[in-house]
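fwd from M.: "can u put these together and see what the complex looks like"

so here's what she sent:
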Amino acid sequence: MSTLVIEDLRASVAGRAILDGVSLTIASGEVHAVMGPNGSGKSTLSHVLLGRPGYQVTGGRVTLDGEDMLALPTWQRAQAGLFLGMQYPIEVPGVGLAEALAESFRAGGRDAAPVAATVADEARRVGLDSRLLERSLNADLSGGERKRNETVQLAVLRPKFAVLDEIDSGLDVDALRAVARRVEAATTEFDLGVLAITHYTRLLQELRCDRVHVLSRGRIVRSGGPELADELEHTGYAEWAEEDPAVAGAEPVADPFADPFADPVSRPLG
Amino acid sequence: MKLPTTSLEEWRYSRVDGLDLDRFKPAGLRPTAPAAHPEVDALIAAVGATSAVVETRNGFVVSRVVSGQGVHVRDEADLSGAPAAVREPSDAFVVANRAYASDPHVISVGRGVTADPVILVHWVDADDVAVYPRIRIEAGEDSQLTVIEVVAGEGRALVVPLTELAVERAARVDYLHVQMLGEEAWQIGSQVSQVGADATLTSAAVSLGGYYARMRTDCALTGQGASSRLIAVYFGAGGQMHDFRTVQDHRVPKTTSDLLYKGVVANTSRSVYTGLIRVEKGARGTNAFQTNRNLVLHEGAHADSVPNLEIEDHDVRCSHASAVGPVSEDERFYLESRGVPPEVTERLIALGFLGEVLERLPAPALGPLLGDALATKLRAAEQLEQQR
């Protein structure tokens, strides 16, 4: 049994405060949904937990079984048992899925030999075409394929806790069901704890959640059981979103580290 | 020999000012046998069937095996007549090669012949010598030939290779230059090619070694329908420098050239790419493309990239693109968020970056071996970086 504790977490992006004291405790096997209007800080929370560059922690603590996550570099947080399923999984040209996961296994002292076979099994489980596994990570994948791909990685790596950042966005019904069911199964298969960040309740129809938290203006303003999600389904976030439209407009923040190769720069004639 | 200086555009950014020519003497005695070189043997073995293997050691031919039908290998005591592809007097090193090459060779493939690959090995294991390998390759009309030229060895030498390729009408030639010299060697090389009507040349380079390793590639498209594909992978570490100069010279109508050079610089290494697309008057219907991308792995490393166009006719389609940049923070974060350590992440991304070219190399069987060589070198570069 493991515990992920987030205490009074504060963070800013480009000097602008986004998280204003978030506290949450998640135990193994539990599913917590963090819901909220656009601009409430949901994505920032997920990135800060894994230490994405460009996000500054300005206060608070994050511990996994007592170990200070914020003191570790990203890769060691992952090795300690955190996983981030990204809203926009990033394309890595020339690097294969199994190759990357095998390196993660090696770095963690795990036997990397079965990785390729496990990847193939997990791809089948979420309905990801195995031919896509031959490509560079996320290269030319549709939105739905990228999320299935994230789920495959989650299942192969078997972390203690998964932070899923809008894993349900851009998914058709079939893909959503496949992804949600795989995550749900992981909560019993290897006792995965889940922090599912989502804007909509449809994810929670397949992924049974234990707790629902509403994030607004960088703080958790309400927590409750699954019935809170049903309530939000009817009321929406109007109650919170309208309080501070300025914050609502704060996301998404432009990534300061854009891929220098994404768009070739032609030099002047010389 | 009067050396050029970096004040000349062609030698800008180069290390020619640091070349102490007096240090390098002509190689003395002719070696009697090839040296042991398992890494080169592995490359040769991967190629499989060959039609000729010619090996030089410190500039002298030490082995010559011709097994293929229709392939001729001959000494050429006098290759001094400038091939048609060389229009203006080339640089001092080409002139020196013409004067000093100890065993110039011609390899020719007859009209209509499809030959197994030809392998040329230039092994350099003497210190303080100047070595001038010189090969002329003649692919007859409608012939097909693959040539793999390997320049390797740990000698602290100056190596000045000159390779000439004459690709006749409708011939198809794949050429691969693999440079694995020691990190104290100088290479100042030239490749001059001429591609005739409806002929195709793929010319590739993989450059790993050298303290300063330069290769100038002049590719002239001289017959209608000629096309060339120029590709290169280079990876510098420690204090190395790789220097590439290319000219895609479109002399007649309806020719195509496509260039993709990708390099990685690690530690405090340097690279230079300077490329010119020249479309001569009357060369209508030219298609010419040039792309150079460089990945700067560490803060102390540096890459220069200078593409140029010189277009003297209308009705042409030309493009060039160049980029120099560090590892993308997004890509790095993505892999690290899966638990991959930073130094492994850099290695994966760098290999992936170069993979786009590696998988297009002629002699695809060599791809995995060259990929392994790159990976080994990347590991060493990461270790060096961590000690700094």
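replying to her w this: The helical segments of chain B are 38-47, 92-100, 329-336, 342-358, 367-387.
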